[in-house]
Amino acid sequence: MAGMAIAPLRPWEDFFPSVDRFSKPDVSDLSKWNNRVISNLLYYQTNYFAAAIVVCLIVGVLNPLGMFLGGAVVALVFMGSVWAGENQTMIKNFKRKNPTLFVVAVMGISYFLLSLCGGVMVFLFGITFPMLLILIHASLRLRTMKNKLENKIEVVGLKKTPMGVIMDLLDQQEEKVNKIQDFLESKLKD
């Protein structure tokens, strides 16, 4: 992972500012909402990872074997889905056309496998709950100019972060890259 940069931990005042920096997303414009979520995931990624680790540690202390099993199952399903998405044409096409549904399918498969092992509660509280909290914050937090600038640097490829790699594996940034390429091509033609 040469060239990988860890995004800085954002201060609490930036991560959770006053109420006026939060707004309900426009659910009628899914593209705009998706861009907000992706931008916030990239910008606040270290804060999100830290929050997820805290929740996982709490659940891990309460049920260490279940948390280990849950983490292993989710990691294996995620790695298997990424491999299948790269090597199986049908899955690759599905992943490109329906990236959000693909992520939901990965979580559904993980849930099913853990239900066979009796680890559903660990899955819900140790894995799904932190993801839900992150999604809620990323959906409601308005972007700042610094946020938008940092994301442009990530998308163009000048900087690579762990969340950027995860987003690439899930094909969540492809639209943004295409939009930037179209914009640059149109400017070069002018």
UniProtKB/TrEMBL annotation:
Its main location: membrane. Keywords: Acetylation, Cell membrane, Cytoplasm, Cytoskeleton, Endoplasmic reticulum, Membrane, Transmembrane, Transmembrane helix. The keyword Transit peptide does not apply. Pfam families: PRA1. It is a multi-pass membrane protein. This is PRA1 family protein. The keyword Membrane applies. The chain crosses the membrane at residues 41-62, 68-86, 98-114, 120-140. It comes from Triplophysa rosa (Cave loach). One of its GO terms (biological process) is negative regulation of transport. Belongs to the PRA1 family. One of its GO terms (cellular component) is endoplasmic reticulum membrane. InterPro entries: Prenylated_rab_accept_PRA1. It is found in: Cell membrane; Cytoplasm, Cytoskeleton; Endoplasmic reticulum membrane; Membrane.
